[in-house]
Amino acid sequence: MSRVCALILLLFAYSARSAVPDPIMKGLLPGTITFIGESHQHAESAELVRDLVSGHIKQGQCLIVALEIADNQQPALDRALLSGAAVSSVQIPASIDHPAMWNLIEHLATLTTQSACLNVVAIDAGPHNPRDRDEWMAERLAGLVGDSPALVLIGALQTLKKVNWLTKSGRPSVAERLAARGFQVRSFPRRWLPEQCINGKHRHQHFVNPDSEEALTILNESLMALINAKPQQSAQGVVDGSVVWECDNPSLASRFRPDIVSL
User: Fold this and answer.
1) Which CATH architecture has domain 22-201?
2) Is residue 249 very low, low, confident or very high in pLDDT (cuts 50, 70, 90)?
3) Which of 29, 130, 201, 250 is 20 to 30 A removed from 179 (C-alpha atoms)?
4) Could you tell me if 204 and 15 are in contact, meaning their C-beta atoms sit under 8 angstroms apart?
């Protein structure tokens, strides 16, 4: 393979990995709450939030970034973001303790020195708070949203705006609670197919519209199947789209298939 061809492939692979889906970016409007639903310990979720925040701030727009960190860590988070304290001084849950999350916080610290319009908030209840976590986080977000949009990185199940529970013990998610109160909630869970890539392959992403069969399959097989709930008949009204990360196909042709890389 020629060097030119190799360079083209490298650039294309990078753009496929780093592209930000337009439906998510364009919807970061005042008064909206946008949920990015992740399976914890995946670097791509933090990287997507990083890119969304950077792109939004570069447009001169204000933004609230909400993280699944106990709110009693807000003083430590503020010191790390605003006063140059070590990011490691912030205590974060083991579920999100991975290098990409620390890199995200460090990146947010850099951006806060460049923009007075970025507000980073810890919204989780924490281990010693007796309140229901989803209820607590919904209250926190309800009190934050206003002229600035809110971008929330949280577990995928907490982004579901509607769940038909099969048990009376089922409780609404953060997103469902806020949607029921009339907030403009946008939910984008993420899916990794398969969970692990073999032979060190990279991943590419594509955006799945909520009115597609693929969106319904992802919703029911990847999310509803994990909880005691009925399968949904449509993804619309439950999520506003999904971002799927798939292992790269080694063949040259597959890298350029428009149905695979659609961003």
Assistant:
1) 3-Layer(aba) Sandwich (3.40)
2) low
3) 130
4) no
Backbone CA torsion sign across 122, 128, 130, 132: positive
Determine how many CB atoms are found less than 10 A away from the CB of residue 151.
22
**pLDDT single digits (tens) 157-179:** 999 999 999 998 899 999 999 99
DSSP state letters, 82-112: HS---GGGS---GGG-SHHHHHHHHHHHHHH
**What is the largest distance, in Å, between two alpha-carbon atoms of the chain?**
62
Q: Which residues pair with 204 in a beta bridge?
A: 246
18's enclosing H/E stretch is helix 3-18
Rounded to 5°, angle at Cα 147 from 45 and 149: 10
The number of beta carbons lying within 10 Å of the beta carbon of residue 34 is 25
pTM: 0.85
DSSP structure string for 45-84 = HHHHHHHHHHHHHHTT--EEEEEEEEGGGHHHHHHHHHS-
First to last CA, the chain: 26
CA atoms of 63 and 147, how far apart (whole Å): 9
